[in-house]
Backbone:
């Protein structure tokens, strides 16, 4: 019986001959080796057919694998299983006094999926989520398990953001840093007048993360959200809007 799955928005449907949720690495390797066409499901935050294996292909979910999260406090790294989501990862590393330098915008997003698809960071000063990857473990088409590390230089970026073309990502090793807190400042009514390219770039790089909101009716932005690390000063920038409120401080793992 054919299986169909949609992305999170429900506007893209993926069809496959079968949907599998292996419970062990060995079962996954055997499944991949015995299949002619495989696509892996993450949290479904893609607006394209990247996970479409075709009617005769196989869809693979890593959700049933053990949620491996192994923290090395000396090296400040964490080895993460392919099915782990950002919320569970952040909670574990925080218990060790550590944190990720950047995370996805929603807690349930798959770490491996966001890395493989080259997902952006939360601010212009933050690299893509893949920039924190130190090593990646992939099950290839023949079921073999390979490990690739950052010292591969020019080839490593292509392996990390391979969009699933090289195989199934079953584990990642990520860089960590000392735990920190983030607070959000909300400003209102930022006019477009005087907002040239240079000023816009200054605004967007003014904090750890900057978000602009408009209803397209007013000649400007209704709200500007600045998220800053509390160990850094609140920035100033040209045309700074009126300050509205500041949220309660939150730990980086809960933002």
Residues:
């Amino acid at each position: 019986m054919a299986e169909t799955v949609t992305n999170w928005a429900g506007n893209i449907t993926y069809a496959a001959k079968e949907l599998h949720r292996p419970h062990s690495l060995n079962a996954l390797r055997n499944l991949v080796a015995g299949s002619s066409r495989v696509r892996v499901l993450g949290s479904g935050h893609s607006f394209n057919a990247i996970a479409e294996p075709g009617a005769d292909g196989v869809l693979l979910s890593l959700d049933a694998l053990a949620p491996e999260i192994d923290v090395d406090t000396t090296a400040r790294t964490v080895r993460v299983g392919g099915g782990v989501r950002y919320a569970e990862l952040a909670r574990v590393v925080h218990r060790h006094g550590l944190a990720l330098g950047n995370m996805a915008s929603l807690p349930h997003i798959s770490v491996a999926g966001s890395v493989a698809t080259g997902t952006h960071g939360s601010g212009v000063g933050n690299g893509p989520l893949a920039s924190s990857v130190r090593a990646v473990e992939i099950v290839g088409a023949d079921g073999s398990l390979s490990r690739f590390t950052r010292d591969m230089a020019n080839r490593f970026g292509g392996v990390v953001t391979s969009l699933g073309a090289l195989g199934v990502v079953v584990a990642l090793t990520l860089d960590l840093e000392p735990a920190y807190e983030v607070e959000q400042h909300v400003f209102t009514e930022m006019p477009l007048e005087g907002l040239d390219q240079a000023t816009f770039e200054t605004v967007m790089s003014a904090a750890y993360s900057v978000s602009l909101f408009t209803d397209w009716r007013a000649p400007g932005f209704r709200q500007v959200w600045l998220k800053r690390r509390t160990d850094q000063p609140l920035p100033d920038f040209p045309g700074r809007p009126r300050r509205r409120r500041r949220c309660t401080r939150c730990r980086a793992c809960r933002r």
Notes: DSSP finds five helices and 17 strands in the chain. The longest strand covers residues 181-191. The mean pLDDT is 87. The longest helix spans residues 86-95.
